[in-house]
Amino acid sequence: MCDTASLLHGHHHGPEFILDTPVLRDFIGEVKAAIAAGGPVEEAIERFKPAFSALMEDQTWLPEEYMQDAPASGMGNGIGQWALYRAQDGSLCFFSLVVPPGQSTTIHD
Prior knowledge:
alpha+beta; 109 residues
């Protein structure tokens, strides 16, 4: 699971790629390049939207273990959050969020 609280406080010391595949490395590389190009965050998001869309359309890149619900997660209703990448400096975290069939999340920020 992605522990964003420890990321924000710089306590992450593990490997950056929890899921280390060429597809995920390429995607994270595109995100980092979009951010490094500068400008407002909204512009960076626009720059990597095509890469994110391609990732979501590819039904083969995410292993089954990261598609499972997590009844003991504490998030309620079996919702699972699985860390895939965490930058050492806490600047970027990418995870899969699994909402089991028939469940939903409340609106939140």
